[in-house]
Design brief:
Helix content is 33%, strand content 17%. The chain has 142 residues and is α/β, with parallel strands linked by helices. The chain has one domain: NAD(P)-binding Rossmann-like Domain (Rossmann fold), CATH 3.40.50.720. The strands form two sheets. Strands 2-1-5-6-7 form a five-stranded parallel β-sheet, sandwiched between helices. A two-stranded antiparallel ribbon has the order 3-4.
Length: 142
């Protein structure tokens, strides 16, 4: 049997977006052609604070914001972690997520991981969205 993640209902996804002000973007690079960059740029233009997380670019700036090596290094509260890493890395990001007080774990379109979901749920963190594009969901809402 193939694993298929069950996202929360659409209204709950919209509520997550409405509750969000600060988005840490794991895997954001300075390559403007990437989905991570385009989604982050649109969300930033819509008024969200974007916090780039990328160990290779730590200390640099992307979209005018300082890049952090790890989620645990971000000095402010994170409302949402938006993950742009391949599915096999989602559990690692979930472990990092659990070491922060971030509220919502969001894996972009095409990404899901049973291991990540299990880790998060076992830790009592149920605000999980996977295989959805934040930009698309946001634009449906506005």
């Amino acid at each position: 049997m193939t694993y298929t993640f069950q996202n929360p209902p659409q209204e709950v996804i919209f509520d997550y977006i409405k509750q969000t002000k600060t988005i840490a973007v794991v895997g954001l690079s300075d390559r403007t052609e990437t989905a991570a960059y385009r989604v982050s740029q649109l969300m930033q233009e819509a008024g969200f604070t974007i916090i780039p997380v990328n160990p290779k670019l730590a200390g640099e700036k992307i979209l005018g914001e300082r890049v952090y090596a790890r989620l645990q290094d971000v000095p402010v509260h994170i409302d949402m972690v938006n993950v742009f890493r391949r599915s096999e890395f989602l559990a690692d990001v979930a472990r990092d997520f659990l070491e922060t007080d971030a509220d919502i774990y969001w894996a972009q379109l095409g990404l899901e991981s049973e291991d990540a979901e299990k880790l998060l749920r076992q830790a009592g963190r149920d605000a999980i969205v996977m295989n959805r594009c934040l930009k698309i969901e946001y634009l449906k809402m506005v």
